[in-house]
Specification:
This protein is mainly α and 206 residues long. It has two domains: 70 residues, no CATH class; 133 residues. Helix content is 69%, strand content 0%. Helix 1 packs across helix 3 and helix 5 packs across helix 9. The longest helix has 28 residues. The N and C termini lie far apart (73 Å).
Length: 206
């Protein structure tokens, strides 16, 4: 069972690394890529990361990447993987705000700043589980269906002990997701203020 978990973790990290590279290359490219081209490139890069391939290293490249960054949350992986879909919509600013706010409260407390540790809620707290369900419901009412199935898959992965961790937090949140949400939210707010300022300047009398 442990060997299977290690294989799954390496496969996930290989796929995530491949998607991240393609996403970065897309950002540098002035033109969009055909979806079939992205699929083929994902398969090629995933194999390069997953198999040693006779390189002067004993382990697959994904193993070294995982050793540095650790296991990513299911939410992070699904957000990354879905970024290559043909009709992928931007993540709502409300979701970015919620993740950033939770991270700003959660990590200081989990690291010992305060009288209680919220990380313990992930070991089966019914109240915490209901709160996660409510977040998914809010995503549904807000019209962001992708958020609903991302949170649902994360809960199912936790229930099935898909990763080594038995804590629900590890399936929902990680430092990379927290940093991304904070930076993305600040960037979105800055762009909104900039666009509003430009609009006000353009339509100013005289």
């Amino acid at each position: 069972m442990n060997s299977l978990m290690q294989t799954i973790a390496l496969l996930e990290m290989s796929l995530t690394s491949a998607v991240l590279i393609i996403w970065f290359l897309q950002k540098l490219s002035p033109k969009g890529w055909p979806f079939i081209a992205k699929v083929i490139l994902v398969l090629v890069l995933t194999n390069l990361f997953f198999w040693p391939l006779g390189l002067p290293v004993e382990l697959p490249i994904a193993a070294y990447v995982r050793g540095v960054v650790g296991d990513l949350s299911v939410v992070t992986m699904l957000l990354l993987w879905s970024a290559l879909l043909p009709k992928n919509k931007p993540t709502p600013i409300g979701f970015q705000f919620v993740i950033a706010l939770i991270a700003l409260i959660f990590y200081p407390l989990a690291l010992g700043l305060g009288m209680f540790d919220p990380y313990g809620w992930g070991y089966g707290s019914i109240a915490f589980f209901i709160a996660v369900i409510l977040v998914a419901v809010v995503c549904g009412f807000a019209g962001w269906s992708k958020g609903v199935w991302i949170i649902s898959v994360a809960i199912l992965a936790w229930a099935a002990h898909w990763h080594e961790s038995a804590n629900l937090w590890d399936y929902l949140l990680d430092p990379f997701l927290a940093v991304w949400a904070l930076v993305a939210f600040i960037g979105a707010m800055y762009r909104r203020r900039r666009d509003k300022a430009r609009s006000g300047y353009l339509f100013r009398p005289g």
